[in-house]
Amino acid sequence: MRLKRLGLIASILLLLPLYGCWDRRELNDRLFELGSGVDLIEDGKILMVGQFMIPAKSGDTGSGEKQSYFIETGTGKNAFDGLFDMQLKLSRRITRAHRHNIYIGEKMAMSGISNFLDSVTRDPDSRIRSDIWVVKGGTALEFMQMTFPLEKMPAIALSKSRQIIGKKIGNSVLEILIAENVEGNGPTLPTVEVFYDRKLRKKTFHVYGRAILNRKQQLAGYYDAMESAYRLWVIGETKRIPITVQMANGQGTFSVEVQRATCQIRTEAKDGQVNINVELKGGAIVQESNTSWDLRQTNRLQTYEAELNRHVEAAVSSIIQKAQKEFKVDVFLFGRTLSRQHPEQWTALNTRWEQAFSGAKVSVHSHVKIKQIGLQGPPPNHEEP
Predict the structure, then answer these.
(1) What is the DSSP code string of 115-129?
(2) Quick one: 254 and 205 in the same domain?
(3) What is the tens place of the pLDDT at every residue in 168-184?
(4) What is the pLDDT, as a whole number, of residue 147?
(5) I need a surface site. Which of 114, 231, 250, 262 has the fewest CB within 10 A?
(6) Is 266 found in the same domain as 367?
(7) What is the DSSP letter of 43?
């Protein structure tokens, strides 16, 4: 009998962890926010935007149904004040544990996002792995009001887009906080641009590239998609990159995909002068050739390689100079590399790295080899050498 009682008590104790809602917050009292936005408006006030899932519509299917989400806003002196104003308009408590993306309007990004990030990190209900995006030339509200035909929740569309184009989901709140503590590093954020497509006669959007932030977390400028891809090559965060080359002699263009892309950086600091050497390597596959050359001929293939490497060196040198002279922000982790290769010299340069980086001498060398030219023989417009 005693064993039966002990067994009953043990069974009850095992069942206790299975009970939910200890805080008495039922699911039907919560409102799930899958996307957030923040804009700087008149009088320096903050406009908070939320995209919320409508529970009754989230599981429905069919093409003739209403949208499964709605948008609400709140205005305040800061982010918390704006969220409080938004909550007053809703009958359920906002829950951000499932938030995918945070969108920041350009004007807000220019003024700085440090205060907004402070409000995010202090909120225990906030998801710190939410991706942060800058809306180039527009507002977060403008972007979040757009519809997207392929996703029931437009807030998650950009996350999937970045996966498709080969970039892992990144630059979350957590990663921005980590980047703040990396020596000689300038943070960047993915960028979306809203524009009017004249051919389709409607507003649409695309992933533009990267937004560059200075050490005060203020917008310093942008890299477009191709510039962003070259940057990823330099910092070692991509293994493949598509490149289209215009022949120097005006005889056409050709496109390749560089695979197994690697980069080696060597630094040197002497008498306050910093020298940086960037070595790029990879194997290229010809995807399209719009010239009259037969690439089965060794001399033609060698010319293609020379043109490709010339193009890469010029493109990478250009984006580095843009960071040095226009942004004045090290977005290539050169400072971190210098601190590891020459810790003694870094001690003297650490406090004035932005100035040292802007005046650094950077040399770029590309050693990409064309590995495959495809099954196509000579092109239809082939001309004998």
Answers:
(1) HHHHHHHH-TTS-TT
(2) no
(3) 545 678 778 777 777 66
(4) 82
(5) 250
(6) yes
(7) G
Do 80 and 129 lie in a common domain? yes
Kindly compute the dihedral angle of the four CA atoms of residues 299, 300, 302, 308, in this order, to the nearest 10 degrees.
160
- What's 343's domain CATH number? 3.30.300.210
The whole-model pTM stands at 0.85
- HSE-up of residue 365 (Cα within 13 Å, Cβ side): 9
Residue 148 backbone phi and psi in degrees, to 5: -140, 120
| pLDDT tens for each residue of 322-377 | 999 999 999 999 999 999 999 999 988 988 999 999 999 999 999 999 999 876 66
Give dist(CA 134, CA 132) in Å, integer.
7
Contact 287, 256 (CB under 8 A): yes
- Tokens 């263009």 correspond to what residue? 253
Residue with tokens 């970039």: 167
Shared domain for 178 and 261, answered yes or no, is no
Any domain includes 319: yes
Q: Which residue has tokens 């010339």?
A: 310
What distance in Å separates the CA atoms of residue 371 and residue 305, rounded to the nearest whole number? Answer: 10
Q: Do residues 203 and 154 make contact, with C-beta atoms less than 8 angstroms apart?
A: no
Range of the domain at 308: 236-385
CB 49 within 8 A of CB 23: no
User: For the chain, how many residues are written?
Assistant: 385
129 CB neighbour count, 10 Å cutoff: 12
Residue showing tokens 């305040």: 76
Task: Give the chain's domain count.
Answer: 2
